[in-house]
Here is the input.
Amino acid sequence: MANISPASVRFIFDILKQIGLVDFHVKPNREDWKAVLWQLFGYFQHVLAVLFLVSNVSSTLCRSSRHVPEFCQRLFESCIILMGFICTQIAYHRYEDIKSIVHFMETSLSNANKEIANKYKKKANITLFAFLLTLVFASAAHLSDKLHPLSEKDIAELKIIYGTQNPERRHYVNVWIPYVDETLSWHYAVIHALEFWPTLIAGASFYTIGVLVLTTITVLEGQYTILRTYVKKLGRQHTDIQGNTVYYTNIERNKYIVEPINKRTSSVKDAALKAKLQQRDLQRHLVYEKLYFRQVLKFHQKLVILQTKVR
Here is the structure.
């Protein structure tokens, strides 16, 4: 389970940081003009994303609504864009929490049960691969729809709906700028270039948050499965696979010590001494039970903290 780390999340998150989308605020030791410009660039990206979202939603509500089939398609598109924008804001406002979650899953997961760990590692990889394929196929389908040649009838309908001269020139994401025909050659080129960036960062943010949530759910499921195996051992004698009595020192790492054979009271012949040793062993066992319960409780609290950070 320790190998299940959202490496792709950290990779993309580092890219988002490098391009100034998250964690771009001026630090106390970087009060210079470069830092100020970097901060302004970060805010500019968020303003551009907001304008892009407003332009897309306005086009959907004010123009696409003139034709029901077109409106349904553009409404779905706007919902996807809105989800990407929300993920961008989550990445921006909860940067420290996300970084903490990624660090936790890279360093603090229990790998005590190899079988359970490998099972959920495989499940996580399959889930993330399916999620990535879904995004790739959805993007490819959307791009294919935009590049597909339109019939004369479709062009005539779109000209009426959007009031543009060249409706066959379609942007990857539908936008509307009042008093501007976005299908004119230079308008089309500029808008096409400008919408590429917010679309890219929205997609990257959506993937980052989606992978983080799916990975965390799988990780928690696996960790609670491991925890359950130790909860079942409460109040019972602990043994290893050879049947030797063991005492756990760290259940999260499956660390334990084996009881030495020469210290077992069963080998003592004197009845009085044996009773005294049994009493001592009982007291030690009670102390160990308390320590073991604390380990279980600490493990559970760690998982609860992870759950809280994801909410």
The two ends are 22 Å apart (CA to CA). The chain has two domains: 7-222, 246-302.
